Amino acid sequence: MNDRPQTTAVLFPGQGSHVDGMGDEVARTAPELHARCLELVGDDAFARAGEDTRFAQPAIFCASLAAAAHESVPGPALYAGHSLGELTALTAAGVFTWEDGLALVVERGRLMAQSAAEQGDGTMTALLKGTPEQAAEIAAAHGLTVANDNAPGQLVLSGSAPALDAAAKDARAAGLRAMRLDVAGAFHSPAMGSAAAGFAAALAGVELHEPKVAVFSCASAAPFTDVRAELAAALTAPVLWRQTLFALQAAGATDFLDAGPAQILAGTVKRTIGEPVGA
């Protein structure tokens, strides 16, 4: 008989996890959060989440934070977030107040959209069925960055559109699948350098509090030790999500809960460690 206590890893998603109607749910369960989001964004971020990172990031943050607040997590917990989800995880853990967390997310989305506009032709391409070694080789050949290691056979390249087009041809010639992502920026690459600098300045003005639970960074696959520095650096660093899931498991996670509206992270858990995921 296994008497090990249940430890739940609560997972908070990044961009691409929005769904229709999530704004209505936030308005119902967290009306203050919903109202403040609309005030800070200056538009309906929930209705426009599919249009631009400026809307997607605060909308997903609010939906995930509101959902997590109403989940009953048995036993001890560990938190981790995918890209944007790091801010949601830290806010849920009490490191930021919800007001500060939301303001930071709005600024993060604005800065990333601005950096993307300055670059002009940056975007991302998913490589499916390939290994990290294959992705690294293709990226190096075309001056690209391996921006995400999400799960076995799910890697993402980031850089200029022409370079990604050339990389996609190489990938398909090697028997891999290449799929352009609907994002308007080379996220988690050096192209986000100006956004990282601006975000560091925003983080410097926000008070930090002791976390209620351990929060893992997806850039290091380890618990945060310097929240401000790590959050800013994460904008130009790869998302090591597969490694983060293994780290959570090694830290004692026996169950995984996807707090996101689209349940995208649940799929990465199943592909990576084969564990059941709660909704």
TrEMBL record:
Its EC number is 2.3.1.39. The keyword Transferase applies. It catalyses: holo-[ACP] + malonyl-CoA = malonyl-[ACP] + CoA. The keyword Transferase applies. Residues 11-279 form the Malonyl-CoA:ACP transacylase (MAT) domain. InterPro entries: Ac_transferase_dom_sf, Acyl_transferase_dom, Acyl_Trfase/lysoPLipase, Mal-CoA-ACP_Trans/PKS_FabD, Malonyl_transacylase_ACP-bd. SUPFAM superfamilies: FabD/lysophospholipase-like, Probable ACP-binding domain of malonyl-CoA ACP transacylase. This is [acyl-carrier-protein] S-malonyltransferase. It comes from Paraconexibacter antarcticus. The lineage of its organism: Bacteria, Bacillati, Actinomycetota, Thermoleophilia, Solirubrobacterales.
